[in-house]
Amino acid sequence: MANILSKGLAQLHPKLRTNGMGIGNNHRRISLGFLQPSKRNPLVRKYNRRRRNAPDQQSFRSLGEDFGSTIAREDHLDVVDEEGGELELEDGGELSRTVSLPSRVSETPDVHSEVDWILEEHERRYSSAQHSDDEDIQHDQYEFQDRRYSYGEQEQPDLLEYGDFMRRVRRQLDQDVNRRQPRPSFVSVTSRGSVPNIYASTKDKEDYKHEVVTFKSEAKVLASYSIPLILTFLLEQMFPLICSLTVGHLGKNELAAVSLASMTTNITLAVFEGISTSLDTLCPQAFGAGNYKGVGIHLQRCIAFSMVVFMPFALIWYYSEYFLGFIVQDQILTHLTAKFLRIAILGAPAYIVFENLKRFLQAQGIFDAGIYVLLVCAPLNVLTSYTLVWNSKIGMGYIGAPIAMVLNFWLMLILLLLYILYVDGLQCWGGFSKKAFTHWKALSELAVPGIIMLEAEDLSYEILTLFSSYFGISYLAAQSAVSTTVTLTYMIPFAVGISSSTRIANFVGARRPECAKIASEVSISCSFFVGLFNCSVLIGCRNLIANIYSKDAEVVHLITELMPLVGVAEIFDSLNAIAGSCLRGQGMQSIGGIVNLVVYYLLAIPLGMVLGWTFDMKLFGLWIGIGTGMFLIGTIEGYLVLFPNWNRILERAEMRKEAEEADDDLSDEYFSSSDSDDEEEPTERTLLLHR
What we know:
Pfam families: MatE (PF01554). The chain is mainly α.
């Protein structure tokens, strides 16, 4: 009976035989094209076909035929047998009863999201076909026996279990997308059992979904990521130091004003660096999941959010003379500080965008761009600062320092943009999108804890410096020197932490918790080596460090006596920095923010004040208190990193992904309407997708 029906249907017109409602085979369908679709359907409204006389630039996003139709194009197919024969591809591949969908995947970098409708439709049709009678399947005249599945070069049976089939479909899709051979794509989908092959012509990237990860290999990757970042952050920390050294010889008022302005800018810009840490979660997870265009959208969203947040800070900087008057009584000092901050307003946006672009590149595994930019900008900053402050012809004195800083920030941004445009990193840029102004609430849920984690420690150092002033000038000078040195050494674990968060987030996005766990273990292990290195440097070079900052015997003695205690505290601070970054990679920075806020301000700082004043331990008491806080924070966060709930982490990452994709369901980005604004009658595929 099945043979009779098959022979009868084979005589029908191809359109009746291949489109519409299924009868037991995915290609024997009745066309539903004669039905009048509802124009209120959002899918119908969104789907606009190109003009008939438009240039032929079809892709699988704009196919005019149903997914199951027999499609033949002269530029892609050699032989087509409309009676159910074979389709032969130009490259020699031969697939029986195969539909080839010509596509230029290079036009659509986000292959994963745009072929979802193909997989879903193929899944539905395959499922319906599997419900047909076994005898009918065995006698089907279109079935062939010797079909090979290319994945792993192993021969696979023709008929598969449903779940196994779909797993193989998606595994082959991921493998072929990551293979990215530089030629046009042909998406081949057979009626039953075979797998789509996609060859994308984009730049080769690391395959996070199939990478073999061991403790040793991950340690090598982490080292290769961290070294450029360490140099980058150390060079960035040189800019305020150069500014202070350049202006310091003008007078004590100018030096005090620069110090106060630098403290204000550091505290303020730390807010936006905290916001940018949300990209340590979002961008690597999107990149690891293969959503490359989503990486660029996250970048735009974070920049737009940061610019809106900066507006009130810009007003505070502009009117800083009024606000500083409540804290500092010296009018000359407040006036000079306000002049510095007003000019610095012009450079802050460039710095904010630069920090976000660094995260954008780091998510793609590009860690050396920042060091190239700063190797150019750091020497130029020294030259510019000296010229604008001290040059006899164009030197402007004190006001030249903030101008040099603004020029430096914009030069950093321009050079980094040129690197992205002409060297590497542009593959994740999908163009400007209005989605940058959506999902700000979800972004703030990651940004606010990131701000708290960074500001909690930065402000604790400033509070220590403020409290040390009550012990005397020598103690204040010693604390200032120690804080500046600790800030420089902190950049090493902070850089390692950013590298760790990127790797962990990549694996979370690829849904490989076992690899993320290995990356977390490697990172926590590295924190002890980094901490011991910093401790050794601070203790071994304490005399050299003290003599660099001061020639006063009392100040030198205080610094050398304090450095061993500070070195021990830095072991725990390294664990704190790296564990906090790992939490950001897992998307759990809200926990880190709470831990930092509670421990620093409810335990560490009060303990330091009690030991410093009540027990008269002065600076030693302050650092015992802050060191205790670092130990507790590092221990708690380290435990949370090593023993997390990976199911919860993956669920949260999936929820963020689904929230992003929810806005894409009816987006015209998946249906080309650039050539025509007039709506036309929807095709069978549109109706089939709706059905």
